[in-house]
Specification:
The protein is mainly α. The chain folds into 2 domains: 426 residues, Growth Hormone, Chain: A, CATH 1.20.1250.20; 55 residues, no CATH class. It contains 19 helices and no strands. Helix 3 runs antiparallel to helix 17, helix 7 crosses helix 16 and helix 12 packs parallel to helix 17. GO terms for molecular function: transmembrane transporter activity.
Length: 497
Amino acid sequence: MYATTETLATSPAAQGGRSRWLALYTLCAGMLMIVLDVTVVNVALPAIQDDLGFTSSSLAWVVNAYLIAFGGLLLLAGRLGDLLGRRNIFTAGLVVFTAASVLCGLAQSQEVLVIARFIQGVGGALTSAVILGMIVTLFPEPREQAKAIGVYAFVASAGGSIGLLAGGVLTQAINWHWIFFVNLPIGALTAVLAVKLIDKDKGLGLGRGTDVPGAVLITAALMVGVFTIVKPAAELGWTAPRTVVLGLVTLTLLAAFIVREATAANPLVPLRIFRSRNLTGANLVQALSSSGMFGIFFLGSLYLQRVLGYSALEIGLAFLPTTVVMGLLSVKYSEKLVMRFGPRRPLIAGLTLIVVGLLLFTQAPVGGNYFVHVLPVLVLLGLGGGVCFPALMGLSMADVKPEDAGLASGLIGTTAEVGAALGLAVLATLSATRTEAVASTKPALEALTSGYHLSFAIAAGIVAAAVAIAYTLMRPAKQAEQTETDTDTPDLALEAA
């Protein structure tokens, strides 16, 4: 299904006797570094504020600068991987991200840190956008591909909770500068291993897909869109004039981009790619599930901190069960589930478990007990994520041609990033609104908990919508019943649903 062309040399044949699994672990190390950075920084924000004198409003730019660059460039970075060679883009991203991390660690002023965080976002986009495309070309055989995607999905989805623990340890044991300095040895080693373990691919060449106007339009649209979500929408509200104006600018840029791609001789994003029901459905599901999950991890952390009184390190330890359960399923069992039932059924089952977990979180009270009110939720989220996310990654790439693998990889990353930003902004705003509404009649902790309960319930509804899309839009496979009775036919793995 994913046979490579002459220009896409990152293939099993091209790898020769070198271990594809070591190459996979190298790619995942790069992804882990990117994912960890987001939550590590969140934990360290109070220390950064005290040291550099950020105000509460300006402190948000330590996060926003990264998100705007990262979310805005993912799609372009994925396509550049197809055109210029995915290993080239991956290693270039590692170099940029690592250098920017050192600059972040050395920062002694607010301006330097914010600029360095923006550059970090550029490097993060270049690195992460092409990874999934490289994996599907490294592992074209369905059974191995399902297992490899399971490893990747675990790193991409569960790495954030590891970051909570790492951030707490580094910030409390040393200082916040070291959350950035630790990226230097990791990034340098990963870049060296990538050059040694992954053969250089030539890419299609700029002549096959140079579309400067399209690149400018989509990058501008995504950057303005992410900025609108994380800044005016979150701070001023969705109906504020500034939010509305920037939202209209985003929609105008997107419309212009679609018109450009429909008429360009060599479009940056060929619209034909969206003819695949699996790819289109997977990206919709990714956006919705990311909206629910990312917002809940953020607000769930606030519940543990503000209501239950947990420290940063205790929050990291509290979320470890999610990581352990998700890792066990993703790495050990996801491939077997996909091979046995096809990707569609595990996807729906996993998303349903997440919905149940989110609904259960709405019952967590003031003074709740971790083992009674929090741990069952985190286990359900880990079970759901470990089952559904590897299947979702497989479906997102199932019908993609080799020359479009980088684009599809960047696309699924873009929808995840935009969905996460949108979900966080919406859920945080609604939670704060509910808290303010009941604060006059209830004690402060009860008002906070009421706001969190509302956000948990809305997140459950968002993920339930993802279940509906997965059920109705994902392509049913004619071989599904045969796959259930004959698990020894790996060729049906990513076609079953």
